[in-house]
Specification:
The protein has 152 residues and is α+β, with helices and mostly antiparallel strands. It has four helices and four strands, in the order αββαααββ. It has one domain (8-151). The protein has helices at 8-18, 37-55, 87-101, 111-126, and strands at 22-25, 28-31, 140-144, 147-151. Strands 1-2 form a two-stranded antiparallel sheet. The protein has a two-stranded antiparallel ribbon with strand order 3-4. 28% of the residues are buried.
């Protein structure tokens, strides 16, 4: 599959899922709040455009694969009135975003990657059953007549 610039609805959903999230990049603490939502959304969008531009170096910025109206040229404005994805849907959106945004050499050390890593950890903790799952796993083995019986 080829890389493309994700649409602003995609970015908006990631920002919505990340509200309240804290992450660190280059030793600096960042927090996603309603006040910082536009900046974070723009940062994510810029990273995706950078990646797709790197993947398709001959294309003009207005001709990159993605929304046909090149909506990424208009500054990002967070819109909190959207349907909130479930944690599983958000993880899938995050995977898609990272797939589109990881094409350039600066991705591994980017703020967008740091944000995505923090969001992924947060979303995993929101999955149903996560809180009830054991922190540590232990199998108890009992030997009975030289046969191993596993008790769970």
């Amino acid at each position: 599959m080829s890389a493309y610039v994700v649409n602003k609805s995609h970015i908006n959903a990631l920002v919505l899922c990340g509200l309240g999230l804290v992450w660190y990049h280059e030793g600096k603490r960042h927090e996603l709040t309603l006040r910082s939502a536009d900046r974070v959304g723009q940062m994510l969008l810029d990273e995706c455009v950078k990646s797709v531009s790197y993947r398709y170096p001959g294309d003009e910025i207005t001709e990159l694969p993605g929304p046909t109206d090149a909506e990424w040229l208009i500054p990002f404005k967070f819109n909190p009135v959207v349907r909130r994805p479930t944690p599983v849907q958000a993880l899938k959106l995050l995977n898609c975003y990272e797939y589109q945004s990881c094409e350039h050499p600066g991705w591994p050390t980017s703020e967008a990657k740091a944000f995505c890593d923090a969001l992924r950890h947060d979303l995993i903790r929101r999955l149903p059953g996560y809180d009830e799952a054991p922190w540590e796993w232990e199998d108890k083995l009992y030997y009975e007549n030289t046969k191993i019986i596993r008790i769970f």
